[in-house]
Each structure stands twice: as structure tokens, then as C-alpha cells.
């Protein structure tokens, strides 16, 4: 789109053009800047330009207009007083004319107040005499404020049949922020929200009015919304997971054409997405299951995006997604095509599961420091800020340091918040998925369980009294303990990530998704909630291995930190601290690195009571054996029953 703002000197072309540039994100140009020096010299001396003087200037501008159009559009302030001047500039169908006019007195006053401008105020009369009023375009009296004029222009321009590049359904927290992100990247966006009579009315149209922007259009009617999209339609759903998605797809089905693209940007369960990708494919509709992370702020300023599903569809929206995504340290978008089917939603689910683990681990750290080391929240906040610069950089730790510093009156806000944690599904789904795929998941599973226990506040309060529970402070050196808690947390964090990535590896292999863990780590280095210094390291690590526990650098790190994790767990448990994720991570680690585990006894017990059979060590045949344990016991030691153990 090319917008040309015309009018005599003093009509406010530059002010309005610059304002429009902000509202449309199109670059602004002032035609005066393109005059040859001979013209400027004449105007400075108060000598009116002739048409002969203007001809090369207008031709030059016309060529620029064609260039700007190719680059996505521009706004040009140009007096264009005569019709033949305007016709010289009319080199494209995409030109919109805005004509500013006003009382001579106002124009004179403005010109007299202007400094550092070569236009001689004496030329106003000649300009007014030259002005040939056009019969097209928008005519605006400059008596209004620039804001009023700008709003009128945006409303006028929106009447033209411009199709939006993308449509968003669901104007909740995420949908609104993503819409603003798209338009700030000059991607034409239509938005729609359902109507619930008496409760949810005119949500999308009101949002578009409140955020007046040429690139934003709000619709309360689904049909009109879909009409406003360019073909093939690209529709992003930002609504709750589950039945809402299926209902919305049903409503859309009558309107969609083959080749249209639907993107589910919510936290849908990946198995639902697997099904939807193939169901939609059968109808000729492309379906992308896209994980989005970063919360409200990320969605607005740059989220981490995890699209998966139909690759052909991805290629059609790739540039838009790249534009709105966060950028990694090398300036590349934190967005990648994850893989087929619901893989994008799958990795988002695991991302959230790691997020659960990280949040719970930090919560355990805060409890240990606060009630074990008797530090107040402000002190803990300062300690965490130091940790951020000492090998533990992470978004979640950063926001925790902020939270701990917040007071309401004399009290810490944290102490006023009910200790009952909410959850929406992704943590639990990860756990179910891990169980279904036989992947050990205890550290992250414990984070889910901890939230469940926390939500039983009334029962906990009752039992707390019955058991006289209270934390007991540690009697040891605070400085040494602080360092040990830090090391324990550092290792717990490594194990949490190892747990989540091992689930991704298993499911990727099972579905032949061929997930790229280095690339997944890269798109999680910014924009998302689990971005951290560790994540930056994982980008390199997963180029070399598929398990942190096999990576040389991490093997030595784990060895070094292990004694502090186990020490802090022992100390904490013996002083009545609940440390579910800390403890589970240590058990998980030991369970992974132990060569001779206690499971031989489990197999023996299973065979004893259920004849489930067992395999034998060093038996290359892999055969299954059953023992008659009663008989074997008698045969093994027939006289031992009543004998005391030998010394
Ligand atoms: P939200 O603020 O609760 O908004 C939900 C939106 O969906 C609202 O516009 C709501 O419309 C609409 N909606 C609800 N039920 C619907 C139905 N049956 N049919 C059509 N529209 C319906 O939710 P949100 O935080 O934006 O989250 C949207 C999706 O993104 C969810 O899947 C969520 O899990 C995911 N997500 C959220 C975050 C986050 O930090 N919030 C981060 C990543 C992903 P009404 O106004 O009419 O109710």
C-alpha cells in the first residue's frame, strides 16, 4: 500500500505522514527531500517552481513509489497540487490519496511558526491558487488534532478490500498478544472471538477499535472474519485445548476450502493433534499443531514457536512465524519446523513438564533457604540474583528473585498467596505419556504430584496440627550450606532436563519423528519459560549426544555436584522439609547409574508368587526361567529353618 498525503505547505503533511507511519509501520518519506538542489535554491529565495522544474522531481518520485511498493509499501508526503502532478505519481493501483485542506489563517500561522525549513511563507498564496481539488481520495480538514486525523485515515483505509494474511480465533490473553505481535510486524491480521450472549459480546471488534491499526481488523461474525482472509486462508486458533478445538473445527469446516491452513497454537494434547492432522488432511485442509511458549509477554514481544504437522503448510506460514518469534543469540528466530503429526504439541508438553520440574525445584530451594537457613525473602532474592550471574542464569530463577523482593505494606506478597498450586494439564499428560512409553519420569512426575498435594490445603492443615509439623532450622554454617544448596539445585536442574529429553527421544523414535534435540534446545533459548544458560549449553551438547549423562562435560559436572544434592536432601528430610523433586532427581540419577540394582529381588518375588519367570545374569540365550521357590528353599538349606544366623 502506498499512501500519499497531499496539501499545501503548512497543512501538516509531515506530521500526519509520520503518525500514519507509526500506525501502519510503513516507512515515511517527504517528497521535499527528493527535490534537486536547484529547486531548493529557488524555493528558499521565494521563487515559485515551474512545471518544468517539477517534472524530473515527480518522475523520480514515481520511480521510488514503484520501488517502495515492491518493498511492502510506504507513506509519502507530497504537495501534489495539480492533477497532472498527481497523475504522474499514479503509477500503481495500490495508491491511496489523503488530501489535507484548511483555512488560510491556520496554514499561515503554522508556516510562520516553522523553523529550519526552506519554504518561504510568502509562497502560500501561490500554492493555494495552484491547488486543483481532486474528486477522489479522502479529504480532511486540518483543524482536527493529528490523532483525530490519523484515526479517520486508518478507518478510511480499512474500507478498502484488503485481505489479511492471517486470522486469529480466540481473543484471550494469548490471542490478543499474538495479534499485536503480528501487526507490529506489518502482517495484516484479522481477529475473531465467539459471542456468548450477555457475557462475551463484540470482543474482537472492540479489541480492533482499541488498537486502531491499519493491519488489524476485528470481526464478531465468523463468516465475515473468514471472508477477510487472503486465500489460502491461514487461521490460528488460540482457544482452550480439548473439545473447544473440535467444536471450532466443526464450525469452520463449512467455510474452509482445500489448501486452507489451520494452526492450533494452544496447548492441545499431542495425540489429539495426531488425529486432527490426519482427519483434516483427508478433507484437504492443512493442519499445523504448534506449541507456543512465553506467556502473555512472550506472545506480545516474541514467543518460542514449535510448529509441527503438515510441512507444506508450514512453508506457507514460515515467514510470518519467523517475524513474530523471539530471536536466539545469533539473531535467528526461536521457531523451527519440529516434525510431522502432533510433534509440535508433544515437545510443548515436555517443555511444560520441565517447567513444572524447574518451578518445584526452585520452590524447594526457597523453602530450604528460608526455613532451614532462616533467610528472609529479600535476602534470598539477592542470593538468587548472584546465582544468575554464577552459572545458573534462567528466566524462572530471575522471576523468582523479582517475586521474593515484592512487599505489600510490611509483608511479603508471597506470604499472602494461598499455597495451593494450579495446573492445566500438560504436566499430567507428560506423566501419562511417560508411563505409556515406559520412560522413567520420577523427577518431573513428582512436580505434578507436589502440585496435587499442595491443592489439598484443608486436609494438609488438619494433618499438620495432628503431627505438630514444623520446619527445623539447620545448625550448620550458612555460607557453606548456601553453596551446597546452589550445587544441589544445579544438579537437580540437569536431571530434570535429562528426564524430559529422554521422553522426547523415546517418543520420537517410536513415531519416527526424527526430532532434532539441538534445534529444539535452540528454539528454547529465548522467548520460552525454560530459557536458561543450561539451555544454551544443550544446543551444543545435543549435537554430540542424545543423553546428558553420556556427555563428558556433564559426567564430570554430575560427579562433582552429586554429593551436595544427596547431602542437602538428607539434611532437608531430617529437618522435616518435603523435597519431592530434589529427592526424586537424586533417586532417578542413582537408578540410572547403578549397575547391580535391587530389581533381581523384584523378579524373584514376582516369580515366587505369580510364576512370572525371570532371566538369568550372564545367560546369552535370554531364556526365561521359573523356580519352585518352596522346593528350592528346602533343597538349598534343609536344616536352616530354626537356626540363628551364623556369626
Ligand atoms: P484465555 O485467556 O482463557 O482465552 C481463551 C480464549 O478462547 C478466549 O478468547 C475464549 O473466548 C475462547 N474460547 C473459550 N472457549 C471456547 C470455545 N469453546 N470455542 C471458541 N472459543 C473459545 O486463554 P489463553 O491463555 O489465551 O490460552 C489460549 C490457548 O493457549 C490455551 O490452549 C492455552 O493453554 C494456550 N497457552 C496459554 C499460555 C498462557 O501463558 N496463557 C501460554 C501458552 C499456551 P471467551 O472470551 O468467549 O471465553
TrEMBL record:
The keyword ATP-binding applies. It is an enzyme of class 1 (oxidoreductase). Residues 627-647 are annotated as: Disordered. It comes from the Bacteria. Pfam families: 6PGD, AAA_18, NAD_binding_2. GO terms for molecular function: ATP binding; gluconokinase activity; NADP binding; phosphogluconate dehydrogenase (decarboxylating) activity. It catalyses: D-gluconate + ATP = 6-phospho-D-gluconate + ADP + H(+); 6-phospho-D-gluconate + NADP(+) = D-ribulose 5-phosphate + CO2 + NADPH. The keyword ATP-binding applies. Its EC number is 1.1.1.44. Keywords: ATP-binding, Gluconate utilization, Kinase, NADP, Nucleotide-binding, Oxidoreductase, Pentose shunt, Transferase. InterPro entries: 6-PGluconate_DH-like_C_sf (IPR008927), 6PGD_dom2 (IPR013328), 6PGDH_C (IPR006114), 6PGDH_Gnd/GntZ (IPR006113), 6PGDH_NADP-bd (IPR006115), 6PGdom_BS (IPR006184), NAD(P)-bd_dom_sf (IPR036291), P-loop_NTPase (IPR027417). Residues 344-630 form the 6-phosphogluconate dehydrogenase C-terminal domain. One of its GO terms (biological process) is D-gluconate metabolic process. Homodimer. NCBIfam families: gnd, PRK09287.1, therm_gnt_kin. Belongs to the 6-phosphogluconate dehydrogenase family. This is 6-phosphogluconate dehydrogenase, decarboxylating.
Amino acid at each position: 500500500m502506498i499512501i500519499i498525503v497531499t496539501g499545501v505547505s503548512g497543512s501538516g503533511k509531515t506530521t500526519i505522514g509520520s503518525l500514519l507511519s507509526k500506525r501502519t509501520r510503513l516507512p515515511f518519506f517527504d517528497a521535499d527531500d527528493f527535490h534537486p538542489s536547484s529547486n531548493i535554491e529557488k524555493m528558499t529565495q521565494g521563487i515559485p517552481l515551474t512545471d518544468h522544474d517539477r517534472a524530473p522531481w515527480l518522475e523520480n518520485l514515481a520511480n521510488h513509489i514503484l520501488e517502495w511498493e515492491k518493498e511492502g509499501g510506504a507513506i509519502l508526503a507530497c504537495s501534489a497540487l495539480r492533477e497532472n502532478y498527481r497523475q504522474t505519481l499514479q503509477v500503481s493501483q495500490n495508491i491511496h490519496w489523503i488530501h489535507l485542506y484548511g483555512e488560510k489563517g491556520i496554514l499561515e500561522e503554522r508556516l510562520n511558526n516553522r523553523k529550519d525549513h526552506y519554504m518561504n511563507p510568502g509562497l502560500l498564496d501561490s500554492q493555494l491558487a495552484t491547488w486543483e481539488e481532486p474528486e477522489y481520495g479522502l479529504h480532511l480538514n486540518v483543524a482536527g488534532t493529528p490523532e483525530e486525523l490519523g484515526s479517520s485515515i486508518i478507518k478510511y483505509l480499512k474500507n478498502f478490500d484488503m485481505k489479511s494474511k492471517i486470522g486469529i480465533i480466540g481473543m484471550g490473553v494469548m490471542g490478543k498478544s499474538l495479534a499485536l505481535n503480528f501487526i507490529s510486524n506489518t502482517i495484516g491480521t484479522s481477529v475473531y472471538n465467539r459471542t456468548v450472549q450477555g457475557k462475551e459480546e463484540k470482543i474482537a471488534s472492540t479489541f480492533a477499535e482499541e488498537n486502531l491499526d491499519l493491519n488489524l481488523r476485528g470481526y464478531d461474525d465468523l463468516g465475515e472474519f473468514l471472508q477477510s482472509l487472503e486465500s489460502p486462508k491461514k487461521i490460528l486458533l488460540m482457544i482452550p485445548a480439548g473439545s473447544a478445538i473440535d467444536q471450532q473445527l466443526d464450525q469452520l469446516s463449512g467455510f474452509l476450502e482445500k489448501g486452507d491452513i489451520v494452526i492450533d497454537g494452544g496447548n492441545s494434547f499431542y495425540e489429539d493433534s495426531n488425529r486432527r492432522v490426519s482427519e483434516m488432511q483427508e478433507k484437504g485442509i492443512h493442519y499445523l499443531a504448534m506449541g507456543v511458549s512465553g506467556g502473555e509477554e512472550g506472545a506480545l514481544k516474541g514467543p518460542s514457536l514449535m510448529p509441527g504437522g503438515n510441512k507444506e503448510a508450514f512453508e506457507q506460514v514460515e515467514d510470518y512465524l519467523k517475524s513474530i518469534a523471539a530471536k536466539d543469540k545469533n539473531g535467528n528466530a526461536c521457531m523451527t519446523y519440529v516434525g510431522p503429526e502432533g510433534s509440535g504439541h508433544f515437545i510443548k508438553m515436555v517443555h511444560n513438564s520441565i517447567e513444572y520440574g524447574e518451578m518445584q525445584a526452585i520452590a524447594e530451594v526457597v523453602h530450604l533457604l528460608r526455613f532451614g537457613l532462616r533467610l528472609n525473602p529479600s535476602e534470598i532474592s539477592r542470593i538468587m540474583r548472584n546465582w544468575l550471574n554464577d552459572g545458573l542464569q534462567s528466566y524462572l530463577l530471575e522471576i523468582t528473585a523479582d517475586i521474593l523482593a515484592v512487599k505489600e505494606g510490611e509483608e511479603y506478597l508471597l506470604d499472602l498467596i494461598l499455597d495451593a498450586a494450579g495446573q492445566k494439564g500438560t504436566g499430567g499428560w507428560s506423566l501419562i505419556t511417560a508411563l505409556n512409553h515406559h520412560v522413567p519420569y520420577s523427577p518431573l512426575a513428582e512436580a505434578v504430584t507436589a502440585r496435587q498435594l499442595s491443592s489439598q490445603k484443608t486436609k494438609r492443615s488438619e494433618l499438620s496440627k495432628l503431627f505438630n509439623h514444623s520446619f527445623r532450622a539447620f545448625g550448620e554454617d550458612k555460607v557453606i550450606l548456601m553453596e551446597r544448596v546452589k550445587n544441589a539445585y544445579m544438579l537437580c536442574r540437569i536431571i530434570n532436563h535429562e528426564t524430559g529429553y529422554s521422553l522426547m527421544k523415546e517418543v520420537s523414535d517410536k513415531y519416527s519423528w526424527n526430532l532434532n534435540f539441538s534445534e529444539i534446545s535452540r528454539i528454547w533459548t529465548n522467548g520460552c519459560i525454560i530459557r536458561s544458560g543450561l539451555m544454551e549449553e544443550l544446543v551444543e551438547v545435543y549435537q554430540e549426544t542424545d543423553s546428558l549423562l553420556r556427555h563428558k562435560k556433564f559426567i564430570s559436572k554430575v560427579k562433582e555436584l552429586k554429593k551436595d544434592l544427596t547431602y542437602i536432601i538428607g539434611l532437608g528430610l531430617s529437618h522435616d522439609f518435603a523435597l519431592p523433586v530434589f529427592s526424586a532427581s537424586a533417586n532417578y540419577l542413582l537408578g540410572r547409574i547403578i549397575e547391580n540394582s535391587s530389581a533381581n529381588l523384584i523378579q524373584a518375588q514376582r516369580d515366587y508368587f505369580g510364576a512370572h519367570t525371570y532371566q538369568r545374569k550372564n545367560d546369552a540365550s535370554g531364556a526365561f526361567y521359573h523356580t519352585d521357590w518352596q522346593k528350592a528353599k528346602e533343597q538349598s538349606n534343609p536344616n536352616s529353618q530354626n537356626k540363628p544366623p551364623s556369626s
